[in-house]
Amino acid sequence: MLKGVGIDNIVDIHDIEEAKAIVGKYARKTPLVQSMFLSRNVVDGDVFLKLENMQLTGSFKFRGANNKINHLSQEELNRGVITASAGNHAQGVALTGHLLGIDTTVVMPDEAPQMKRDATRGYGAEVDIHGATFDDAHQWMFERAKREGKTIVDPFNDKYVIAGQGTIGLEILDDIWDVDTVIIPVGGGGLISGMATALKSFNPNIHIVGVQSENVHGMYASVKAGQITKHHEDFTLADGTDVAVPGDITFPIVSELVDEIVLVNEDEIAHAMKDLLQRTKVVAEGAGALPVAALESHKIDDRWLKNKKTVAMVSGGNVDLNRVSQIIDQFLKPVKADGGIG
């Protein structure tokens, strides 16, 4: 048993296979495409992008939210569900609520992008703006749930949410059974916990790399300290991973199954967003660009990449167009002769 994780909270491959059957009724199987730009110019190996920015609601978060809500009892559904999110999990909960005809409430922090607030409302959820950061909103979620009797759908620290995210690992194995390295954004740890469980269940030698921002890296700090530790220094472009404190379910899973976590700075995130747009024609939000930022800044040892098959998760594409414009203006350079889709 994973240290610190109760038996009822252990996520295994059977949970993920069950989630695949449930979530598959609603979610898309997203494309896995090779990036010739990254394979030729950045890594001497084969680099593939798992495009969860093309998932319903524009993010992988729909999977976990959908799986969790589909596991709730009718009594729990009748009370209405509540969650906290900077935006992507919010939309996953809101859309699932719309599809299943249940009331949804989402607590979002002041720093949540406006387009994510608008999209969440567009799916029919009540949006409650509360607190400066995600962690403030997360705490208020618990307080409102207790006061109003609502059912909590936690954004990451939940067995069924983790299992839902793990379905991405199964999809990767369906397409590239002999994948060597998988690079995954990390916030609270739900995505990487689920994917690592799925991938390592098939092949324990698959190298799992997590990526966080230098400005906010609660999971990295916790793994380094050997205990759950808070870390939040400043704003990050990777708002989808802006989680200062990881979950007590996800932390031990990550500690056991993830091989390394690396950090990237804000300029590296912005540069990766620009390259994904300009060279691979992929719109990625900051969190979705973290794996490519790690590749381009050479934060991962070449032995895990050279002559290997590597998958970089593009976890979401919900980015404000004004931010995209600012990033393009910051890094815009003349297109090279070999520019194009790659």
Automatic annotation (TrEMBL):
InterPro entries: Ser/Thr_Dehydratase, Ser/Thr_deHydtase_PyrdxlP-BS, Thr_deHydtase_catblc, TrpB-like_PALP, TrpB-like_PALP_sf. This is L-threonine dehydratase catabolic TdcB. PANTHER family: L-THREONINE DEHYDRATASE CATABOLIC TDCB (PTHR48078:SF6), THREONINE DEHYDRATASE, MITOCHONDRIAL-RELATED (PTHR48078). It catalyses: L-threonine = 2-oxobutanoate + NH4(+). Coiled coil: none annotated. In the native structure, TdcB is in a dimeric form, whereas in the TdcB-AMP complex, it exists in a tetrameric form (dimer of dimers). Belongs to the serine/threonine dehydratase family. Pfam families: PALP (PF00291). Catalyzes the anaerobic formation of alpha-ketobutyrate and ammonia from threonine in a two-step reaction. The first step involved a dehydration of threonine and a production of enamine intermediates (aminocrotonate), which tautomerizes to its imine form (iminobutyrate). Both intermediates are unstable and short-lived. The second step is the nonenzymatic hydrolysis of the enamine/imine intermediates to form 2-ketobutyrate and free ammonia. In the low water environment of the cell, the second step is accelerated by RidA. Residues 27-316 form the Tryptophan synthase beta chain-like PALP domain. Keywords: Allosteric enzyme, Lyase, Nucleotide-binding, Pyridoxal phosphate. GO terms for molecular function: L-serine ammonia-lyase activity; nucleotide binding; pyridoxal phosphate binding; threonine deaminase activity. Gene3D superfamilies: 3.40.50.1100.
